[in-house]
Amino acid sequence: MLKVGLVGFGFMGRMHFDNYIRLASEGEAIELVAICDMKINELKHGKASGNMATEQEIYDLTPYRLYDDIAEMVAQEELDIIDITLPTPLHAELTCAMLEKGIHVLCEKPVARHSSDAWKMAHVAKQTGKTLMIGQCLRFWPAYEYLKSVVEEDRYGAVKAGYFFRGSGSPQEWFLDGNKSGGCILDMHIHDTDIIHWLFGKPDQVSTLARNVISESGYDIVSTHYLYPDGKVLNAQADWTLEGDFGFSMTFRVSFEKANLVFENGELKVNPNDAPGFVADLSPDSGYYQQIRYFIRSVAAGAPVTVCTPESAIGSLEIIEAEIRSADERGALITIGEKAGSLTARDKSHEFRN
């Protein structure tokens, strides 16, 4: 039985909490035993806002041991896994410390605030032999998995073009401190950058236009073109200033030689050039659920994670850093460095998925 400690009980911590409870009820060999947050006494009685609904508004945490100090939790509990859902600048130091204590780590995205810190995380994971996975959850989201399979299998020929978008109203608290969150470009837009990296490897160059709207929050609106040797036209946009009744949106449109795929409003439409279009049959499970299930099964089996290695998550962060440099120079073409973070054949594996 794998014992899990959850660190952070804001919106994402609660999303992970919901899925640990579900997985345990389905017979997975895990037990969520402890929850840690500096504000745990406040949060256990309050709501947490986010761009998707959690299972509950107020959580009953009486079955769990609660801590407001991570060191105390680790000293008191015999944990196999630490799940980190803290603000981005806290990821690197805590991840390295937990790995060095012999604990496997699932860390929320982005991997770290800066790629230099992220590479330290990957090095410690390799050095200790403990499993580290970064929660780039779209790699586990059914519609994006379907797109991945179409690309890999060359089902409809080569990709000609693609457009990816996500947007919402503004987040709150530390997210609006650009020094901590990196702004929309790092915290939200990285999802689609990561998908483009996952599908196609690192681009040769990027060109980004971005704008700061909310004071001190970093780039709040972003549009990036990704340049590849074969000339496919790829663009990803994000905007977290969409207030009013907008809600939340994540979409994509990808054009192949023999078809196009359009994902919007939770539905994936496949439109072959020479046959009637159809709605893809997708799993109803969220990427959060599939991601956590994959991680715990990999740990239980003593197998390395391959769908989202630390190195490939760092590669996505390096692309974002190039995008920020481009935005700083009003869309200048920025050449991506050595492809150290590009995906290997092992990243295409879906072992332990089902």
From TrEMBL:
GFO/IDH/MocA-like oxidoreductase domain sequence ranges: 145-261
This protein's UniProt keywords: Oxidoreductase
InterPro entries the record matches: Gfo/Idh/MocA-like_OxRdtase_N (IPR000683), Gfo/Idh/MocA_oxidrdct_glycsds (IPR050463), GFO_IDH_MocA-like_dom (IPR055170), NAD(P)-bd_dom_sf (IPR036291)
Domain Gfo/Idh/MocA-like oxidoreductase N-terminal: 2-135
Name the record gives this protein: Oxidoreductase
